[in-house]
Write a structure and sequence with these properties.
Layout lengths: L4 H13 L8 E5 L5 H8 L3 E5 L3 H10 L6 E4 L20 H8 L4 E4 L5 H5 L8 E7 L3 H13 L6 E5 L13 H10 L6 E6 L1
Parallel strand pairs: 1-2, 1-4, 2-3, 4-5
Antiparallel strand pairs: 5-7, 6-7
Helix pairs in contact: 1-2, 6-7
Protein name: Putative methyltransferase
InterPro entries: FkbM_mtfrase, SAM-dependent_MTases_sf
Keywords: Methyltransferase, Transferase
Length: 198
Amino acid sequence: MKLNWVDARQSSLRHFYRQFIQLGDLVFDIGANAGEMAAVFLELGAAVLAVESQPMMAAALRQRFCNEKASEIIRIAAAPKAIEVIQIEVKQIALDSLIVRHGVPNFIKIDAEGYEREIIKTLTRRVSSLCFGAPIPHLDLALECLSDLAGRLGFTKFKYVMREDMNLLVSEWVDADGMEAILRRLPIRTLACDVFAR
């Protein structure tokens, strides 16, 4: 049977994220959007807490995953004041509060359209691994996230991936200085990449 593009991408994503997520892990999907990544995490056997602030997206997520016992969808902003700009009234919560309510995640994915820094600030304990969206045209935001993860939270190893490629693009994990140098060299047309931290 021939795989279509969507099936092939899902297969590629499962293969990629298997290096971070194991059967039975707890995963926080912050900025779950339409649920593409949440679906991948569930297929890997993880329990998934999907956080989405946009009401239509949150409703679509609930419908998509209504039969998934290992998933929970909540409509909140995972950072203080993150939603004021887009003028949607939504409850806000810190990552630490999510951990108190749901447990310590093995992996956190943060994709919040420029609010990654605000979200990372609400985390006060180190987790096994996480990734955040790094907007290259607004490099200062990505570098602030990187500095906070390395300095305040003690992450020591970093890699990055271009979203369309889904291959970690440095052969070895690098320290924060090495990751900063890589991000500074990326052309602005890159738009965004995902930075992984351990």
